[in-house]
Design a protein that fits this description.
This protein is of the alpha+beta class. It has three domains: about 110 residues, Acyl-CoA dehydrogenase/oxidase, N-terminal domain (Butyryl-Coa Dehydrogenase, subunit A, domain 1, Orthogonal Bundle); about 110 residues, Butyryl-CoA Dehydrogenase, subunit A, domain 2 (Beta Barrel); about 130 residues, Butyryl-CoA Dehydrogenase, subunit A, domain 3 (Up-down Bundle), CATH 1.20.140.10. The chain has 13 helices and eight strands. Strand 2 and strand 3 form a beta hairpin. Helix 6 packs antiparallel against helix 7 and helix 9 packs parallel to helix 11.
Length: about 375
């Protein structure tokens, strides 16, 4: 495991991006209440995404010839840190920027790259990913959604579930079975582009416990796709989607989902301290432990960014950091909630209470999205040669 991670620093030219991004965010967003800011990468705001694209910050790592920034993954790391720190509403362009765009740049044909990538970089094309199914969940190898070859392309039938922003997206990249049966597991899987406006596509939003409707169930009823809907190589979908998930699992968003709540709590402690109120030893110890763990996770995420910058695909390492990161993210509302319960007579600002209520409700999903904890630990075990 020593070879998996190494201390990595953000190059100066990428660190220099931080100041202009902060300035832009101050002007574009101003103050955001913690409960609203905590929805950051589930906050869908197409106009904000287009403003960000006008700065050249959507598709930051994509090739310049397609409208991208041509920057390294370190530049995107800086950008994502700043966006999440203020709770910017990034959901509209998030999946296209983070994984669909890099996937297309790596596996797409020249025509596919020329069509999709400029639209992604301009925040004119929003993507969702079709992975989980009602009968399969996180066991992607057993999916049953099927695409059959026809004289004009493909005929698609099946269902996908927990599909983030499907009802607001233009396209889906779906993992489907193009040959064999579910018993064939990894063999016979391919990835397809799906225009979600096509006849036969039905999208039903799902409301979560926090009252948001960012998930959807998508049904395909004999949807006709053209030949060029296939991305990459037929039958190589498992390898392609595994590489794609390394992008999804390795970024700072997998450690910062609760950072707005942590910042709001820290602000309360500072105010209390300045007002002469006692900050207990329990609160100090908890704050120190949370910040220390966050710093260590950031170093791990930076190490993965370095490997992505070298063109590697750290699949197992990304699964490990995602598992550790989501465990941290889920601990934040629990720790803070318990400590706030110890000072009920002093009162809690409503903005902090609202943020805590929201993050507490949504935190269980952190270890589901991007692969469940059980699936990830199975991958880690295989990577270590333990199974």
């Amino acid at each position: 495991m020593i070879d998996w991670f190494s201390l990595t620093r953000i190059p100066p030219e990428d660190e220099a991006l931080r100041a202009p991004v902060r300035s832009f965010l101050r002007d574009a967003l101003g103050y955001r209440a913690p409960a609203k800011a905590a929805r950051s990468w589930l906050g869908f705001d197409a106009s904000f995404s287009r403003e960000l694209a006008e700065q050249g910050w959507v598709g930051l790592t994509l090739p310049k010839e397609y409208g991208g920034g041509g920057r390294s993954p370190f530049a995107r790391f800086v950008l994502v840190e700043e966006l999440l720190a203020v709770g910017a509403p990034v959901s509209a362009h998030w999946i296209a920027d983070r994984q669909s765009g890099p996937l297309i740049a790596r596996y797409g044909t020249r025509e596919q790259r020329a069509f999709y990538l400029p639209r992604i970089c301009a925040a004119d094309a929003f993507f969702c990913i079709g992975l989980s199914e009602p009968s399969a969940g996180s066991d992607l190898a057993s999916i049953r959604t099927r695409a059959l070859r026809t004289s004009t392309g493909w005929r698609l039938s099946g269902r996908k579930i927990w599909t983030t922003n499907a009802d607001k997206s233009h396209y889906m990249i779906a993992l489907v079975r193009t040959s064999g049966t579910a018993d064939d597991r990894h063999r016979g899987l391919s990835q397809l582009f799906i225009d979600l406006s096509l006849p036969g596509v039905s999208i039903a939003p799902i409301e979560d416990i926090a009252g948001d409707r960012h998930f959807s169930e998508v049904t395909f009823d004999d949807v006709e796709l053209s030949h060029d809907a296939l991305i990459g190589t037929e039958g190589a979908g498992w390898e392609q989607v595994t590489a794609e998930l390394a992008f999804e699992r390795s970024g700072p968003e997998r450690i910062y989902s609760s950072v707005v709540l942590l910042e709001a709590w820290l602000r309360m402690l500072r105010v209390a301290n300045c007002a002469g109120q006692e900050v207990s030893s329990s609160e100090r110890r908890a704050l120190g432990a949370l910040v220390t763990e966050l710093a260590a996770l950031r170093e791990l995420s930076l190490s993965l960014t370095g490997r992505l910058a070298r063109g590697e695909s750290p699949v197992t390492e990304a699964a490990l950091v995602k598992d550790l990161g989501t465990s941290f993210e889920q601990s934040v509302p629990t720790v803070i909630g318990d400590l706030l319960g110890a000072r009920p007579l002093q009162g809690i600002e409503s903005s902090l209470a609202d943020a805590l209520a929201y993050v507490t409700k949504i935190a269980p999903s952190y270890s589901l999205r991007g692969g469940t904890r059980e699936i990830l630990r199975g991958m880690i075990a295989r990577g270590l040669g333990l199974r």
